[in-house]
Design goal:
The structure is a single chain. By secondary structure, this protein is α+β, with helices and mostly antiparallel strands. It has helices spanning 15-32, 46-54, 58-62, 82-91, 94-97, 136-152, 167-183, 190-198, 209-215, 227-242, 287-290, 305-309, 332-342, 357-366, 377-382, and strands at residues 36-37, 43-45, 66-68, 74-77, 101-110, 122-131, 158-163, 248-249, 261-268, 277-283, 298-304, 322-326, 348-354, 371-375, 384-389, 394-399. The chain has two domains: 15-166 and 226-309, BirA Bifunctional Protein, domain 2; 322-399, Anticodon-binding domain (Rossmann fold, 3-Layer(aba) Sandwich), CATH 3.40.50. The protein has 15 helices and 16 strands. Helix 13 links the parallel strand 12 and strand 13 (348-354). It binds one RNA strand of 77 nucleotides through residues 3, 6, 57-59, 62-63, 80, 109, 111, 113-119, 123-127, 191, 202, 207, 255-257, 266, 273-275, 277-281, 301-308, 327, 356-366, 372, 374, 376-378, 386, 388, 390, 393, 395.
RNA sequence: GUGAGAUUAGCUCAGCUGGUUAGAGCACUGGUUUGUGGUGCCGGGGGUCGCGGGUUCGAAUCCCGUAUCUCACCCCA
């Protein structure tokens, strides 16, 4: 038997209903905020992700599905959605046109990781990207929108918020932090030594007690924000406070992708196990120019669809449409004709086999049809059809027409 | 990449210290005094016991390897 590759899942009933339900309502919500659908390729040049997500990130460093195609191009299955959208944005010269562009997308992403609860090698994200607005109002808007989506599906979550600063404040801070880490080098664990090289702020997440103790006097990012980042961040918090949005300031919240700056946020849920981030995003004002576009402020987020689906309950669908069946072989042709006609206006399930009335009723019940309509010898003789309303439990005979 | 647990029917699982034709519940399917579902009763189909080696007279059961799943580290949506 050939099985799906490790960490790759099929989406079959009843999960498929959740998927469609999620997509339908989430698309509807983001459209209210002015976002338009965009589709970008699953396969992109490897250089795109190296330059956007960053070579120091785990995603690019060790999780990419990377290979040479038959033309010898170095390509990757996309590990995330933002890079492709920004590439398209620049390629179509929307940066030159200027103005505001808002896009949403959804689809599979690929990361070669060890599968775990809420973590797959092929998984789906729903994301949005907003280009052209530097204002903290857009940050607030994006957060409000994410909240609206999660609230719609009745998800329990905590919103974590942080500001990652900008090159002006982050570069010197990074140096200050690394200097500090060097000063306590011997007390830090191996993981922290590695973090110091790749993503120094990560050391604050270390679970090792010795490290935590050693890090107590470490310089914190939130005390080193420059004037403009600090203003931006506090203005955003004022809006959230005003809107009565609960959030936790988490100075250790770091987006693992290199392109983020200033506002970073994450919606986490306790119902998801270790992979508890259900949605995350932030501002990336430099990315467009990194990809050779004209500098354009931008902010976006992505939702992990599988993670969200873990927590979604699809409202029960009521009985709908007709089930048609024949009680004797001679009636099958007639049933087929009647059912085909009915299908012009209603959902119709059709049995191609002669079965007992009991069997048909059972099948109709299972198919969640509202009406069970059958034709037997009597009906055939009288040119009628017997119909039972499975909800009202009433039955009647109608003429065939 | 590291660690722990798991793998027996479509699903959830039982199968004691190795011993004859591997079981249950649910699901599926058929029947049940004449053509009545979701809720009775009886029957039926369906398993190379993840895969490959080994120990043994004999392995679902013990040993080794391997794959996959699950959870955690790590990382992130």
């Amino acid at each position: 038997m050939i099985t799906a590759l490790r960490g790759m899942k099929d989406i079959l009933p009843p999960q498929n209903q959740k998927f469609e339900y999620f997509l339908k309502h989430t698309s509807k919500i983001v459209k209210k905020y002015g976002f338009e659908f965009i589709e970008t390729p699953l396969l992109e040049e490897t250089a795109l992700f190296k330059r956007s997500v960053g070579e120091s990130s785990d995603i690019v460093g060790k999780e990419m599905y990377q290979f040479l195609d038959k033309g010898g191009n170095d390509v990757c299955l996309r590990p995330e959605g933002t890079a492709g959208v920004v590439r398209a944005f620049v390629e179509k010269k929307l940066d030159r046109i200027g103005g505001i562009n808002r896009f949403f997308y959804y689809g599979p992403m690929f990361r070669y990781e060890r599968p775990q609860k809420g973590r797959f090698r092929q998984f789906h994200q729903f994301g949005v990207e907003s280009f052209g607005i530097q204002s903290h109002f857009e940050d607030a808007n994006i957060i409000l929108m994410t909240k609206e989506i999660l609230d719609f599906f009745g998800i329990n979550y905590t919103l974590k918020l942080n500001s990652l600063g900008c090159p002006t404040c982050m570069t010197p801070y990074r140096k200050t932090l690394i200097d500090f880490l060097d000063s306590v080098h011997n007390t830090l664990c191996e993981d922290c030594h590695r973090r110091k090289e790749t993503n120094p702020i990560r050391v604050f997440d270390c679970k090792n007690e010795h490290c935590q103790t050693a890090l107590k006097p470490a310089p914190r990012l939130n005390q080193h924000l420059c004037q403009s980042c600090d203003t931006h961040f506090s203005a955003l918090r004022d809006i959230l406070d005003d809107q009565k949005i609960a959030y936790e300031l988490d100075p250790n919240l770091v987006r693992g992708l290199d392109y983020y700056n200033q506002t970073a946020f994450e919606f986490i849920s306790g119902d998801l196990g270790a992979q508890n981030a259900v949605a995350g995003g932030g501002r990336y004002d430099k990315l467009v120019s990194f990809l050779n576009g004209k500098e354009t402020p931008a902010i976006g987020f992505a939702i992990g669809i599988e993670r969200l689906m873990e927590m979604i309950e699809v409202p029960q669908t009521s009985r709908e449409g007709y089930y048609f069946g024949a009680l004797c072989p001679q009636a099958i042709d007639t049933v087929f004709k009647v059912a085909t006609k009915q299908r012009q206006s209603d959902k119709v399930t059709l049995s191609y086999e002669k079965k007992s009335l009991k069997a048909h009723l059972k099948a109709a019940d299972r198919s969640n049809a509202r009406y069970c309509a059958v034709i037997g010898e009597d009906e055939l003789a009288n040119q009628t059809i017997w119909i039972k309303d499975l909800e009202e439990k009433t039955e009647y005979t109608a003429p065939l027409d």
